[in-house]
Structure formats: structure tokens, C-alpha cells
């Protein structure tokens, strides 16, 4: 498909590459994490060679997702600072979802919803990294109470993050012109 020469590139090649590194490793960390969470997801271990390899690889997938995400966060930090107009946009998001985007406030590169998602993903990624380190028994040794608390937090935050990424993927497909 030929691109319209009047289209503006929204992201540079390095930004896209880093996004896909984060995305692919999020999927790998998510699938391997689900297998560690509940036996019903055990068949996913076959993607990683065995249940032992899944357990070994999961924290590395987490690092390969988390560290590039934090770099990406630094790149986009200034563009995602919430302001008064963003809160106005969020108050009217229902109108836009219902197809009436005529009264939506003017936005910059990102709207209030995108900025809110950005900050939720930043918080979630930091929480996953911190709790993941606490339960990574191969390299770290924390008191059992902290490991238990970190395990519950890790599972809860991971579930929320999977939901947020589903919203991200759906919204990116929903916005006209995103996929070219």
C-alpha cells in the first residue's frame, strides 16, 4: 500500500522499533507469567521449551520489556504531562465514544485518554519491575513476607496491565489511519 505523501509520520523509526521491542516482550512476559499464575495456562510453557525454561525466562522477558519501556517513557514524558484541557477531554470522552466528537477540546499530539493510559502504564511497569525483583529468587533473597506481598501485587498489577494493553491495542485499531 502506498503512503499518501501528505501524511505526517507520527513516530520515528527508533520510536517504532522500541515500541515493538516493548510490545513483543510484554506478550512474552504475559504468556510466561500466566503459566506461572495458574495451571490452566500450562500449555503456553510449550512456547518456551518447558515449564522450567518458562520460569527461567519470565524475569528476563520482564526486564526486556521494562527497561526499554522506561527509556520510551523518558522520550515521551514531556508530551504526556496532563493539563487542564486533558481533564476537560476526559470529562467528555463519553461523547466521543458515542460518535459525537464535535465538542471535544483541541488536543496536542496526545489526548487526555492517551496521556492517562501512558501514566497508568508507567506506574504499572514500575510496580511490575519492583515486585518482580522481589520475587526473583534466583538472584535476590527477600524475607518471605515481602515475597508473598510482592507476589500478590505482581499478579494484580499484571492483570491490570493486560487489560490496559488490550485497551491500547483496541484504541489504536479504532483510530482511523493508525494502521498503514
Brief account:
This protein is an all-alpha fold and 180 residues long.
Characterization of the model:
- The chain starts with 12 loop residues before the first helix and ends in a 6-residue tail after the last helix.
- It has helices at 13-37, 51-76, 84-91, 93-97, 112-135, 144-174.
- 66% of the residues lie in helices and 0% in strands.
- The chain has a single domain, classed as Fumarate Reductase Cytochrome B subunit, CATH 1.20.950.
- 18% of the residues are buried.
- The mean pLDDT is 90.
- It is mainly α and 180 residues long.
Write the layout of secondary structure elements.
Layout: H1 13-37, H2 51-76, H3 84-91, H4 93-97, H5 112-135, H6 144-174
Helix pairs in contact: 1-2, 2-5, 5-6
Main features:
180 residues; mainly alpha; 66% helix
Q: Based on the structure given, which CATH architecture is correct?
A: Up-down Bundle
Counted up, domains total 1
> What's the assembly state of these chains?
single chain
Question: Helices and strands: which structural class?
Answer: mainly alpha
CATH topology: Fumarate Reductase Cytochrome B subunit
Mean pLDDT: 90
Sheet with the most strands, sense and barrel status: none
Beta-strand content bin: under 5%
Give, in order, the helices and strands: HHHHHH
Helicity range:
55-70%
Amino acid at each position: 500500500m502506498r503512503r499518501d505523501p501528505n501524511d505526517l509520520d507520527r513516530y520515528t523509526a527508533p520510536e517504532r522499533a522500541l515500541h515493538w521491542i516493548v510490545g513483543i516482550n510484554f506478550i512474552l512476559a504475559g504468556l510466561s507469567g500466566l503459566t506461572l499464575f495458574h495451571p490452566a495456562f500450562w500449555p503456553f510453557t510449550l512456547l518456551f521449551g518447558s515449564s522450567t525454561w518458562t520460569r527461567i525466562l519470565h524475569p528476563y522477558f520482564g526486564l526486556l520489556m521494562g527497561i526499554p519501556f522506561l527509556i520510551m517513557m523518558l522520550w515521551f514524558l514531556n508530551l504526556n504531562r496532563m493539563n487542564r484541557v486533558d481533564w476537560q477531554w476526559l470529562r467528555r470522552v463519553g461523547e466521543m465514544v458515542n460518535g459525537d466528537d464535535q465538542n471535544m477540546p483541541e488536543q496536542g499530539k496526545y489526548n487526555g485518554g492517551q496521556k492517562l493510559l501512558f501514566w497508568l502504564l508507567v506506574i504499572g511497569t514500575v510496580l511490575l519491575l519492583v515486585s518482580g525483583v522481589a520475587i526473583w529468587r534466583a538472584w535476590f533473597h527477600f524475607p518471605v513476607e515481602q515475597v508473598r506481598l510482592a507476589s500478590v501485587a505482581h499478579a494484580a498489577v499484571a492483570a491490570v496491565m493486560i487489560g490496559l494493553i488490550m485497551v491500547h491495542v483496541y484504541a489504536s485499531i479504532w483510530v482511523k489511519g493508525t494502521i498503514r
